[in-house]
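--- STAGE predict ---
source: upstream dedup step, 1 unique chain passed
mode: sequence only
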Amino acid sequence: MKREELYKEIGLIDENLIEAAGHSGIEKRKKRISKKWVVLVSCLILCSSTSTALLATAYYKNQNSELYIRYLTDEDMDLVPATEYDAEKFLQALKSDNDVYVYIAINRLVECFNDHKLREKALKELQPFLTNDNQKIADAAAFAIDILSKSYRSPYIFKLADGSIIFTLFNNYSDYGSQNVLWRIKDNVLEEYSSFSTPSMYIKEIIPSPNRKLVAIVTCSNKSEFVEIINVEERRSSPELVESARVKYGVQKKLDTWVRVDHENYSYANNIVWKDNDTLEFEGSFSYQDNEIVEDVAVAYQFSKKVIEVKENGSSK
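--- STAGE serialize ---
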């Protein structure tokens, strides 16, 4: 039974009052419902604002802690510190029955140059190898002793105008040349001056300028040759000249001059000479269009002005 009917059944309240009471109840319910919704919506807004703030905080925190890597070295990849030079390991290797180990150890002992005690110890241990039956081992020992004793008489040592000397180790260990690392001694301190990446796998020649302020470094692989000029004192170098000249000449002759992904150029430099203290000249044999065309050219590079000239030299093969 409805509340209004109940009131009428009892007969205690006037009908007008019953109707008023009915409307009043509805209004109160509406007000109660309205207040409940206001509270609920307010809670939702508050929760939403709090969640947004928390998400924003988490986002910025994540942004600030995001992994950032600029460059990974080989040592980083191995997850271990770089291995320090260990002269004792190479001194022990001199006792090996393996000629390759002995040959490597002799060359690596040159690196103890900066440590007086180790240098003297290495000099003593290397003496017996001067008369070794293996000529490559005997030659390596003679060169190492020449460096460690500070005699500097070997033809593989190049004295420069600034008083420094440069050289390679593992001299002519391969049919293609020596190790592709250039060493320097300046003010009685040995340093690894420069190294070359593939395809410059070997140092074939070191050619100082007449005044010995510049050096031409000829490197190679088993497929290509490369030439670079270095001012050792100022640590400045030219572009690689064989590929630079090959591309320039190819453009002049409208030949295909694509650069290979492995950077091999299948080209060669011959008769490399210094025209003067600043200009290097050589004859090039340049390959184009997958070796279908070979052009013989004359190349001249002026170091101070960074100018390269390439001219035809003979007929194409």
